[in-house]
């Protein structure tokens, strides 16, 4: 199964390192210093006493990778419109695409006009600190 992680920052780097260390056929679309570091040293992930290291294919030209079985999009939501055509170069008729995007705030739909009950955010904001702040400011709590 050919898998591409589109964006190897915090979320994508974690996924790529774990998949690569497990022996998956994984590539990453990444740019700049991240791309150079992956080419030079691979990906390393440290979680407590666990260590994962993987040498994966990495490129800033997704069209070089061809059609994939799975594409995981892990870029910030704000750049998705400009990257959509690049992501499309990886997608074929049987490709699954998963959006595991960083940058969509937990409160995104908190005050949405809907008939559905408000989401229970207590696990994300147990003290209601951010909920109160976003309700009064009308802006990002980050």
Can you walk me through this structure?
α3 links the parallel β6 and β7. The strands form 2 sheets. The chain has a 5-stranded parallel sheet. About 30% of the residues lie in helices and about 20% in strands. By secondary structure, the protein is α/β, with parallel strands linked by helices. It has 4 helices and 7 strands; from the N terminus they run βαβαββββαβα. The mean pLDDT is about 85. It folds into 2 domains: about 100 residues, NAD(P)-binding Rossmann-like Domain (Rossmann fold), CATH 3.40.50; about 40 residues, no CATH class.
Topology:
Layout: E1 2-6, H1 10-21, E2 25-29, H2 32-41, E3 43-47, E4 50-54, E5 57-59, E6 70-73, H3 80-88, E7 96-99, H4 129-137
Parallel strand pairs: 1-2, 1-6, 2-5, 6-7
Antiparallel strand pairs: 3-4
Assembly type of the chains comes to single chain
Number of strands: 7
The unreliable regions are none
- Please tell me how large the radius of gyration is: 18 Å
Task: Please give a handful of descriptors for the protein shown.
alpha/beta, Rossmann fold, 4 helices, 142 residues
């Amino acid at each position: 199964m050919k898998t591409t992680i589109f964006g190897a920052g915090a979320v994508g780097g974690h996924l790529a390192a774990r998949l690569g260390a497990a022996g998956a056929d994984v590539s990453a679309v990444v740019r700049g210093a991240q791309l150079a570091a992956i080419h030079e040293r691979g990906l390393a992930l440290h979680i407590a006493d666990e260590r994962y290291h993987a040498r994966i294919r990495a490129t800033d030209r997704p069209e070089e990778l061809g059609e994939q079985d799975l594409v995981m999009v892990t870029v910030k939501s704000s750049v998705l419109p400009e990257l959509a055509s690049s992501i499309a170069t990886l997608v074929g008729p049987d490709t699954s695409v998963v959006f595991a995007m960083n940058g969509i705030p937990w409160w995104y739909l908190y005050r949405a006009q809907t008939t559905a009950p408000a989401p229970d955010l207590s696990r994300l904001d147990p003290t209601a600190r951010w909920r109160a702040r976003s309700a009064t400011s009308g802006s990002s709590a980050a």
